[in-house]
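Hey L., structure's done. Input below.
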Amino acid sequence: MTSDLHPDLTRASAAHLARALADRQVSSVEVTQAHLDRITEVDAAVHAYLHVDADGALAAARQVDERRASKEPLGPLAGVPIAVKDVMTTKGMPTTCGSRILEGWVPPYEATVVSRLRAAGLPILGKTNMDEFAMGSSTEHSAYGPSRNPWDLDRIPGGSGGGSSAALASFQAPLATGTDTGGSIRQPAAVTGTVGTKPTYGGVSRYGLVALASSLDQAGPCGRTVLDTALLHAVMGGHDPRDSTSIDAPVPPVVEAARAGDVRGLRIGVVRELGGEGYQAGVRARFEESVQLLVDAGATVVEVSCPSFEYALATYYLILPSEASSNLARFDAMRYGLRVHPDGVDDPSAEQVMAASRDAGFGDEVKRRIILGTYALSSGYYDAYYGSAQKVRALIAQDFARAFEQVDVLVSPTAPTTAFRLGDKLDDPLAMYLNDIATIPANLAGVPGMSLPAGLAEEDGLPVGFQVLAPAMRDERLYAVGSALERALADRWGGPLLDRAPELPVATLRKDA
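Output:
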């Protein structure tokens, strides 16, 4: 193996693995098997995966090795395994969206993102846990039990993509996919010390993603380093004629920007409304240190104001439930998914079967948002609620446009706090929603955003996330800033942040406990 490849294959970055695979110093079967072994060792404690496809992953890995031996041209990540969020449809593997209503469903078609991963030669390890239909900020709303944060197993790994972030932070996958409707890639990355990017809306195909809120949902890459995330972004991105919202333009030069990491002369705006009161002291401290490191690297920093951001949370929680109530109407127990015969009814009507099935198949958070969305869209309330929310959404987009006339990127903490304990906010929906206060504006405006590790908070020793936002279709700026900051912080820490994470109990220790 090359000298810079970690002796434990599961600890190596995707970029290092890709280079070693290309040099034929390690095989894809070896790399994939190492991660499958790691899953066997620790996932009983973490619960990052809902489904593991060992046979399929190894078969794909063998195929890559054979193609490489035959000197066929291969993509830059060929042979590097990946975990896929369970909201993306996959042929031959269940897609449940973390819900009982889709338990055991194996789709007859595949998401474009998944097809592109397969075509690029990435073996798919399995499907990761998530909040049911991507509704939540903690992965506690999964019908199959919560995932746990590898930094502290009593804490949440974020949501809705907590399974993907937990898989990365526990070294059960070098790469993962996510989706971000209001922060579901970035917030999990923040609380697990990993990297996640929400691309420009339409920059990565949404075909084959089970929709939550169609005007907000965006698939994106997750990794342990900025470069790894950029390499995956380049594979996932690009125009898809099957997605009517897909942008017909080349993928921005994200890999080149990540490799360069040059912020000299870049104007960085600190958003006044995304900080201050309500933000944990340790989160603010790490953020301010990170901003100073970017200044030291040659960037200039100014404070900018985006006053409409104050209304982003309320706006989001009218638009999202409205779109969700419409999208989830398809789960009617007639075509696919769970079907429940209502108790005490000998010859039930279609409506009775539908009601019984949706009652048994949907969890409390999904029901809450369906009810809220149905109310907001109802006759007499549409203009007052949904219509008004869309007007405020336009104001938020205008705030972004004005800010980007002054600066090249905007920065803020990704989340106001570090990971909270499992159960702490499960019965308080508003407290849970506030976790996305800094990430939601980007989804409402369709601009790209990234979260990367900024260090550990003094209060609890848990990871803090640093958020970068850029204008639409200038995703490469995220990677330039992220890479520059990552290098400066790694120099300060003496290596990757995840090297400081506690060791997880292996399965045998857990059984003995």
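The CA atoms of residues 269 and 410 lie 5 Å apart. The domain at 9-310+393-512 is CATH 3.90.1300.10 (Amidase signature (AS) enzymes).

-- N.
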